[in-house]
Amino acid sequence: MRLSAYTKEAALRPAMVERDLGTVVKRLAGVMTAAGYARDPMVLARDVMRREAEGGTAVEGGLVIPHATSEAAVGVHLAVATLVHPITARDADGAELPVDVVVMLTASPQEARAMLRVLARLARQIRGGLLARLREADSPAAMLALLRGDEPSST
Questions:
Q1: What is the DSSP string of 79-131?
Q2: 81 occurs within a structural domain
């Protein structure tokens, strides 16, 4: 399973300029809706932020993975944003961490188990160096190539 199976260029945003996680989640919910991955961006953003309030999803290394099941979601999909300026997000213990990569993962309630498999795959790829390469990607196409597992081209 490749992460690229759960997204497309329209849901990838390099160099986003936002100042807080709530705004990033709202923007990504809009992007996911426009890509056909959700029916209602406001409901999707609300559900993701509600889940985030239950326990933060930031991890060391500058990553936050807001995720949720939502009636607004269509299947299992992800959106990715890199941030020009780091923001803060809470980890599972409530500590605030700086983050500059946001991977938002959503699923319909019927696809909750599949979402957990995608989350596990994402964790493996992050450990394999995906996070650093995402930071360097300067276009949605470059981000999608990384999620496909392609090596970045040297120019």
A1: EEEEEEEEEEEE-TTS-EEEEEEEEEEEE-GGGHHHHHHHHHHHHHHHHTTHH
A2: yes
